[in-house]
Amino acid sequence: MPTQSDIQQAIQELSFNPYTVREDFPILSEIFKRGEKQVPLVYLDNAATTQKPRQVLDTILHYYHHE
After folding, report:
1. SS3 of the chain: helix, strand, coil, percent, to 5
2. Largest Cα span, the chain
3. Which residues contact 2 (CB under 8 A, 6 or more apart)?
4. pTM, entire model
5. How many C-beta neighbours within 10 Å does residue 20 have?
6. Which of 23, 31, 32 is nearest to 51 (CA)?
7. What do you get for the CA distance between the two ends of the chain, in Å?
8. Distance CA 34, CA 40 (A)
9. pLDDT tier at 38, thresholds 50, 70, 90
10. Which of 4, 24, 41, 45 could form a disulfide linkage to 53, CB 3.0–4.6 angstroms apart?
């Protein structure tokens, strides 16, 4: 039977962390000025556009440079 510690560790490993996902999308690291405040970009996906994760961009660039 799993212990409380095992359960907590499993929950932590399976939890969704939006900040980790944001690191994969370069555009989401941009900071913009809104009035007097500096605010991060918020991106909501739709059918018209798609942002690519850094891993995809790196693969495409590698292909263009070496293939």
Report:
1. 50, 15, 35
2. 55
3. 10
4. 0.53
5. 9
6. 23
7. 52
8. 10
9. very high
10. 24
Indicate if the alpha-carbon torsion angle 20, 25, 30, 34 is positive or negative.
negative
37 secondary structure, DSSP code: E
| 3-class secondary structure, 52 | coil
Q: How confident is the model at residue 65 (pLDDT cuts 50, 70, 90)?
A: very high
- Average predicted confidence (pLDDT) for the chain: 86
Ranges of each domain in the chain: 4-66
How many residues in the chain?
A: 67
CA–centroid distance for 10 within its chain: 21
Q: Are 41 and 28 in contact (CB under 8 A)?
A: yes
> Is there a contact between 51 and 43 (Cβ–Cβ < 8 Å)?
yes
Rounded-to-integer distance, Cα 55 and Cα 21, Å: 12
